[in-house]
Amino acid sequence: MDARLKTLDIIYSVHEARMADNNLACAKGCATCCTRNVTLTTLEGRRLFDWINREAPHLMEGVRQEAEKPRQIPTYTINGLTDMCMAGDDVPEEPSDPGWGACPLLSEEGLCQAYEARPFACRSMVSQSRCETGGFAEMDEMTLTVNNVLMQYIEHTDDKGITGNLTDILLLLENEDNRTTHEAETLTPPNEAFVANRPAQVLMVPPPHRDAVGAMMQEIQAQKG
Fold first, then answer.
1. At 39, phi and psi to the nearest 5?
2. Name one Pfam family in it (predicted).
3. What is the per-residue pLDDT across 78-91, written as a single tens digit (0 to 9) for each?
4. For the stretch 138-162, what's the b/e string if a residue is b when 16 or more beta carbons lie within 10 angstroms of its beta carbon?
5. For the chain, which terminal residue's Cβ has fewer other Cβ atoms within 10 angstroms, N or C?
6. Nearest-5° Cα angle at 139, 138 to 142
């Protein structure tokens, strides 16, 4: 488990360094993308849950109080999506409405109360323009590739785990038996709110981005040692 969490932290660090070179409009208090529809792996959930449990345990009460509200429920993972695309299968739609409300970890002032341990979906939602102006995030193609590849790598690292909505994953990991089962790599989806993770069979990298992504992956491996 420690090795998997170390890999996750390295991925977060490498991504942060790469995004620092971009001209991003994201700033403190910008929370248009902070909806109830964030999904994550159990590995990311464990990093987030442990931080909340240690630094801000009161946040779990907010998660529990909003557990009945609608939110995006994933039916496939990023590696599952890749497998479907490679096989030429149709990709099913997943209902996701930003009007369902804000993330349960967002403060009334529009600040993430668990920013230090936020999952990759939050870290990767960057934009070159203010989202509230255009209604969507503006990313260049290289950023999209980097985000997809690192999301695949995170799932690959947690390939014996599961993926779910942030609310559902946190509530799942609140149970010590589930945390123990995840550490033993024997956790399976307990219901239809979750989907099993998959190893990455192929990375989604367009030919023009292969050299840059290859160098990034080598950097991650070097840091892993």
1. -115, 155
2. CxxCxxCC
3. 999 999 999 999 99
4. ebeeebebbbbbbbbbbbbbbbbbb
5. C
6. 165
